[in-house]
Design a protein that fits this description.
Layout (H helix, E strand, L loop, with lengths): L2 E7 L3 H12 L6 E8 L5 H7 L5 E5 L4 H11 L4 E6 L3 E2 L3 H11 L4 E7 L12 E4 L2 H5 L13 E4 H4 L15 H11 L2 E10 L14 H19 L4 H26 L11 H21 L1
Parallel strand pairs: 1-2, 1-4, 2-3, 6-9
Antiparallel strand pairs: 4-8, 5-9, 6-8, 7-9
Keywords: Transferase
Pfam families: Glycos_transf_2 (PF00535)
GO molecular function, one term: transferase activity
Length: 293
């Protein structure tokens, strides 16, 4: 069984070498590393070039994280595919241990939790929870999937039903869409003991940043619209996500209005936010009408 690790990178040259090395040092016998550089302007491409044929490199214009997922998937040849952000790293032995879980269980995806402590050693024992919430998702329920991008892996047969995905700038449409789609399409497992290091730093695009509050409703809306567009049985879930995102955005607008006595520019800094919000409301209305017909 061949494994592919898809590293997505944008201007993370200072972390990229450690990330790649954490995969190269894995003890699994058959894997490849696909590094997608999303139009970096720092030294990332020089670092990637230095690894030569030890990695598969995909150098593309900037298009956002979703476009990097698409490009990495298109270049990969593995039976099991792992996602990894360039500022994070795999703990020693991760590939072998997750490959064993796929071998022992009839699962389509496996998510492992992360640690934010770089000095944490690999766990001696793994706590694995088998996970099948397909019916819950069909009914519009929200299963708890608190695992970031770098803890996600999938069988190729499953990921081919999810990718390529619609491209969005920044991280507005990214791992949340993939996680919900995977949980809807197949049976999986969650490893409760971390096998991945997630780095928290000032340049994080979402986790631990001040932008998270304003990005969250945009992520909910984009994820809900894409799930409903792509999968007929996820109409209810999609509507709930869009409605929740609109409610959070409206609340943010109100708070900003109260603080400044104006909503000019919206909470994201420009009038484009209001246009996007109006479009989301319009599309939600269409979804509701279609669900009632």
């Amino acid at each position: 069984m061949k494994l592919s690790v898809l590293i997505n990178n944008f201007n993370y040259a200072r972390y990229l070498g450690q990330c790649i090395d954490s995969v190269l040092s894995q003890d699994y016998p058959d894997f490849e590393i696909v590094v997608v550089d999303d139009g970096s302007t720092d030294d990332s491409r020089q670092i990637i070039t230095a690894y030569g044929d030890r990695i598969v490199s995909v150098l593309k214009e900037n298009g956002g994280q979703a476009s990097s997922f698409n490009a990495g998937f298109a270049a990969a040849s593995g039976d099991i595919l792992f996602l990894l952000d360039a500022d994070d790293a795999f703990l020693p032995g991760k590939l072998t241990r997750i490959a064993e879980i796929y071998d022992r269980n009839e699962i389509d995806w496996c998510f492992d939790r992360v640690t934010t402590n770089e000095s944490d050693p690999p766990p001696a024992e793994l706590q694995v929870t088998l996970f099948d919430k397909r019916e819950t998702l069909r009914k519009g329920g929200f299963p708890s999937l608190p695992v970031p991008t770098s803890g996600l892996s999938f069988r190729r047969s499953l990921l081919s039903q999810i990718l390529p995905m619609t491209v969005a700038t920044d991280v507005v449409l990214s791992d949340n869409y993939i996680k919900f789609a995977a949980a809807y399409l197949g049976r999986g497992a969650i490893i409760e003991t971390p096998l991945t290091f997630q780095r928290i730093h000032a340049s994080n695009r979402y986790t631990g940043t001040t932008r998270a509050k304003t990005l969250r409703p945009r992520i909910m809306i984009a994820t809900g619209l894409e799930l409903a567009r792509r999968y007929d049985e996820l109409q209810t879930l999609g509507k709930s996500l869009v409605a929740g995102g609109i409610a959070e955005t409206t609340s943010l607008l109100k708070l900003r209005s109260e603080a400044r006595n104006t909503v000019a520019g919206g909470p994201f800094g420009d009038a484009a936010t209001e246009v996007a919000l109006m479009a989301a409301r319009k599309r939600l209305g269409k979804m509701l009408r279609r669900g009632q017909s």
